[in-house]
Amino acid sequence: MKVYDYHHLNHVKEQHTSRKTLWITLALTVFFTAVEVAGGLLSNSLALLSDSAHMISDVFALGLSLTASYMATRNPDGKYTFGFLRFEIIASFLNGLALVVIAIGIFIEGIRRLIEPREIDKPLMLTIAVIGLMVNIVLTVILSRSSKEEENLNIQSALWHFIGDLLSSVGIIVSFILISVTGFLIFDPLISMVIGGIIFYGGSKILYESYFILMEAVPEKFDLESVRQDISRVEGVRDVHELHLWAVSTDHYSLTAHVFIDEAAEPFLVIKDINDTLSQKYGIVHSTVQIEHPAVHDHGEYGKRFLAVH
Predict the structure, then answer these.
(1) What are the residue ranges of helices labelled H in the chain?
(2) Which residues contact 188 (CB under 8 A, 6 or more apart)?
(3) What's the CA gap between 73 and 92, in Å, rounded?
(4) What range(s) does the Cation efflux protein transmembrane domain occupy (predicted)?
(5) What are phi and psi of 101, to 5 degrees?
(6) What residues form DSSP beta bridges with 249?
(7) What is the DSSP string of 218-267?
(8) Phi, psi values for residue 210, rounded to 5°
């Protein structure tokens, strides 16, 4: 492998646990999706069909998540200087979007079924729902453990798909019981719409978090003004501006800042002290600090005010 540049921070992610988990869940999901689609069509249950549609999206979600996990292991090059970590967030965004679209589809079909109820093959509906419940419990537990071991929005987005599936299976069983007791077919679309609401919540949450990162907003775990104040307290620093802090991926943060320093200060030591502060207090190890002086570097009215004060 050709090393064209030196990086203080390794812009790759090795996610062996996550990747193994994703392969296992993908294989189980593909198998059960085929079973559930067939069962939904034969039983004519919207709850079952909505769950099978969600399972199809799970296959798509897992495929994206697996692709992202492999992309994250690729080293930076002359074009992709941050490596390919951001693909993890793109995959999360698409997964969240898929969840929202599926939820809207369930709502629309639910309204149709409320207007025109359809007969349901309840025994087949229950059989597949019970199998689905067991499968989804296993998959949810596997992904949940993986997300705890390796912080990753990509895995969290896949996990939300299976939480939705788990709730769908429970909803189908509840729907079966209520229809059997009351004879009202309306419970099938009603429960489906409740499940759709939960799926919509999970999808919108993932969508928001990934959008937040793609827009390079300051991560919620940081207070930008607190970071600014801590940099300002470093000996020799007189002002901090042009401060940017963002996440490349879920646990990969970058910071850039311009600072005015005392003329007598040693620039290299100031930069080192700033980097040490950022690393030790905030865990930010990828920072770029530019040393400036308002008398040399034009800062317009801002620089003039600074010179007037100092």
Answers:
(1) 16-43, 46-71, 86-115, 122-149, 153-182, 187-214, 224-232, 267-277, 300-309
(2) 45, 46, 47, 113, 117, 120, 175, 179
(3) 17
(4) 22-215
(5) -65, -45
(6) 252
(7) PPTT--HHHHHHHHHTSTTEEEEEEEEEEEEETTEEEEEEEEEE-TTS-H
(8) -70, -40
What gap in Å lies between CA 139 and CA 209, rounded to an integer?
23
pTM score > 0.85 for this model?
no
Q: Between the CA of residue 47 and those of 97, 100, 189, what are the distances in Å? A: 21, 17, 7
Cβ atoms of 95 and 62 closer than 8 Å: no
Question: What is the sign, positive or negative, of the torsion defined by CA atoms of 81, 84, 89, 95?
Answer: positive
Helix (H) or strand (E) holding 288: strand 287-292
pLDDT digits (tens, 9 = 90+) for 230-280: 999 999 998 999 999 999 877 789 999 999 988 888 999 999 999 999 999
Nearest to 29 by CA among 1, 3, 66, 54: 54
Q: What is the pLDDT of residue 241?
A: 93
CA gap 296, 292 in Å, rounded: 8
